Known about the structure:
Elements: E1 2-10, E2 14-16, H1 28-36, E3 40-44, H2 45-51, E4 58-62, E5 74-77, H3 80-86, E6 93-96, H4 100-106, E7 112-118, E8 126-127, E9 135-143, E10 149-156
Parallel strand pairs: 1-6, 1-7, 3-4, 3-6, 4-5
Antiparallel strand pairs: 2-8, 7-10, 9-10
Amino acid sequence: MKLSLMAAKSRNGVIGNGPDIPWSAKGEQLLFKAMTYNQWLLVGRKTFESMGVLPNRKYAVVTRSDFQSSDDNVMVFSSIDEALRELPKFTNHLMISGGGEIYKSLIAHVDTLHLSTIETEVEGNIVFPSIPDTFQLVFEQWFDSNISYNYQIWQKKTH
């Protein structure tokens, strides 16, 4: 199963402040909507609860709590390992979509990173992990907006 990761971070690495995204860069969330359309998203429970169910997506929610969902588009797993064992039965591509602990646990294991850097520095308690040196930048595009941002694609190096 191919693993991709998609995130947006500020220049100082912050991705969130509790359940909130501490900026609103017009257009940046459209990238997320486009890239995740008709995809399986792996998210932590807190991220899932703050984002809600977006249409035309399926969710693998990882939680240590007794969280459950009756939504047919949501599967709940007690660990990342369990999710990664079970999901190949349903999809050949998984988009890792947050939050901070999920990113930290899986960044070294993904094939592709889709990363937006928002040109601001904000306060927050959740930060994006460092990009491992096993990745190389393969695409970059700047967007001018109310808060400009830079979208990058990183691929795992082939040896």
